[in-house]
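Can anyone check this?
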Amino acid sequence: MKRIVLIDGDCHICNQSVQFIIKRDPDAQFQFASLQSELGQQLLTNHKISSSTNSMVLIENNRHYLRSTAVLRICKQLKGLWKLSYIAIIFPRILRDAVYRIVANNRYKWFGKKDQCPIPTPEMQKRFLR
């Protein structure tokens, strides 16, 4: 099953997250698209998510997950000890999402904004949807 992760294409931490996921996803379960792309906007519309969302979005099994739930569901599928982080799902979503929002609201200030992206390898390019 393919899983689609929508990210903010201008966000440094989001781009680092993509590289993090790819390194720990040798079975290539995850594919990626920018929230700002035409495809990203279409997927948001199809799943009735606001086009102005600034959250990481995971789409799997024709369902969507936002913020901390998306992050934890992604970690659950990664190789290594990252699977264990899924245990944080036991915390109320309102608390998990509060932490997520603090990071999201400060991501440009703390991690910067991407002026340019690194050139992806051909293998990485296959993972990006257009």
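Reply from J.R.: I decoded it. The first strand starts at residue 3 and ends at 7.
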